[in-house]
Amino acid sequence: MFTGYSDKTLEFMWGIRLNNDRTWFTAHKDDYLQHLYQPTMDLGREVYDRFMDKFPKLDLNLHVCRIYRDARRLHGQGPYKDHLWLTIRPENDIWSRQPVFWFEITPEGWSYGVGFWNASAQTLAAMRRDIDENPARLEKLVRRLRRDGRFQVQGRDYARPKGNPSPLTAEWYNKRDISVGCQREFDQLVCSPALVDELVDGFIFLEPVYQYFQSFCKNGLEDLK
Known about the structure:
The protein is of the alpha+beta class. Helices cover 46% and strands 15% of the residues.
């Protein structure tokens, strides 16, 4: 049962950021397991079970990332992550090209939402075509998100704008990667069992955004097979 993160969670994440080596991690591995990894697993299981009870046909799975960085992609960084995330996602080899629900905790705070790790160019092009042909579809989603107020569009923009859509859709149209999320500081909510309710409610609210993103994936995924 998820009871919340704690000051010990924060201490470990700052510690591994400032002491990113095997000696320090080995000495503090129990802190990692008790205060970061296990709470994230407990949180993920509760959120996943409740969310999938609501949407069983989505056929998604829970995944909690490893703290160990891929040795092939260190790029001067230490061997350990100073953060942890979970995803509720399709179970296949190209899941990063499909939308996922995510939660992430870092030394600076926490975030959650729905979106792509690495959307294909074909998927984003399909989204732009849909915006051109049927802007009302996205405008309806945008208005709903703005009324709610919790979530913002995130992601990098293309260096050169792809077009000049309506003011409501422009923020989405010119993204080279895209997600919709909420970012918060390390606060009382993340240290409380009520975080489960927040994520479940947020993911349920974002399910239409997931479906919107997913509707553009078919062609891009076929090109990768």
